[in-house]
User: Fold this.
Amino acid sequence: MSPAPDTLPAMDDSAIDDSAIDDSAIDDSADNGTADIATFGDEAPGEEEPVEDLPSEGEPAFRDLGLHPALVEAVEALGYEQPTPIQAAAIPVMLEGGDVLGLAATGTGKTAAFTLPMLHRMATSDRAPDGRPRGLVLVPTRELARQVGRAVRRYGQRLAVRVLEVYGGASIGYQWKQLQRGVDVVVGTPGRVLDHLRRDNVDLGAVEVVVLDEADEMLDMGFQDDLEAILHATPGGHQTALFSATFPPRLVDVARRHLHQPARIEALPSSEQERPDIREVLHVVPRRLKAAALARTLILESPEAALVFCRTRADVDELARLLDAEGTRVEALHGGMGQAERDRVVARLREGTASLVVATDVAARGLDIDRLTHVVNFDVPEVAEQYVHRIGRTGRAGRSGVAITLAEPRDRRRVHAIEALTGRRLPVEPVPSADDLRTARLERLAERVLEAVTADSDALDPYRAVAAELSEALDPVDVAAAALQALAIASGEHQSEVEQIPDEAFAILRRQPGRSRHPRSHGGAGPGSDAGGRPRGGWTRLYISAGRDAGVRPGDLVGAIAGETGLSGRAVGAIRISSGYSLVDVPSTEADRVIRALSRTKIRGRKVKVRRDRAAHGR
Assistant:
């Protein structure tokens, strides 16, 4: 890292967005479709879809769910006895042949939730005589395709199930030969599956079960048209299961067209007690100091395994170079790398020979690594749902995790969108100070010494005589201090260049610039506002009779208010969009004018009713 840390090279904001890379040799590209930002809050009475009751822990066991004995044996041989909530709720529904709409966070066990009932169907009926696939699982990335394929093989090993993963970057000729020999389950990315269809390499006419896994990510990656084409090639009457961590409006449309009276099953955290144990932190950092802030954070946190997300492949390479220059061992992962090289990086992270990987969203989608302790958003995600996917990669398998976001002051709106989606504030904390780093280093050194003394005292015998002589000639505390200094140098626990940056350079982090205390405020002082952007007369919450079902997005509401009343979009406060209605906070002094203006116009092509929200008014 440069000796003048406050002049660190700035990241190139104009670099090509890696989310539009062509990761596949055969039409497996992502065109970076952007999901609509939607919030999840309480639905209006009578509008909430039925949700399957999730059993409490300890109620069912896998052998109680009605699965084929060979599947129960396979699951128990892998060490699993009780299903997770999403498994206990989804498996019985799918065994009865019903469609499933599963809202499940990463790491909840949803792969087994759809794999086991699909294999049960195959175990209890005859195999297609012509070798055509009976199960189809569509996933957003090749990494996830391999992961799901491995799961199908493990669970179906006693049933001799034939599984084939198809994705771009692998030999299409090999995949074609396997399809000709006959397979029972195809797990693939939409681009490559569609390519096989167009080449007449695969016939989906015998498919009985279709699964859309991580469906929201597939839409975000621009696969909607591919999904539609594939689903139209499957026979009518097949069972469909759709699993997603979020439920944006475009996904609602897909579910309505392709699922028949689905059971809606939710395994998303609904309270702090149910939420995975993830500590979330937000650092507000000037862009020129983001790399230094990240380096300080990594020194303080000392993660076992961390995944750092950047927006573009150019940013990944630049950040990896800066961290490497600082002496940090780091791996890069993005779509510009060859598939074999990417596989090696993932394998090193999974096996523990790599502890820090800087990656783009496209390259890291589908990663499932239990030892991941930290996720860092070096760039705030452009789409709020991406934040949920990113941080869901840590805090898994009952472990705790840490999610750190480095936001620039201009990222305020994106941060508010994340807070609106998750329903919780991201706690703002200052970047670790030089004193914080020194204290953390000394604590780690003390732990190593304590461990050496208590683990094997006999191993210290060769050093006791020398230590005794030094202690007689010198102050024992000085001797111990010198030993710690030598240990610090030998282990790399010595002062870093980023500690030479004056803490005052991060003064922006000691306050919360531009962050209103009011959720979803667009910030900034203006006429009729105080210095924090809050209206002097307070807020009034308005009810608008159009929501997600009508395709309404936050931008539609802000645009309509600004366009019809002349108010600045920054004057609009909190926005909550539910399925059949929306709630918007506006300055109380302007509430009547906004109601009159919106009542005369259309939002998303439809007339709406606007009034003060009775629940808020009652409070």
User: Anything to note?
Assistant: The longest helix spans residues 434-455. The CA atoms of residues 164 and 178 lie 7 Å apart. The domain at 5-9+276-433 is CATH 3.40.50.300 (Rossmann fold).
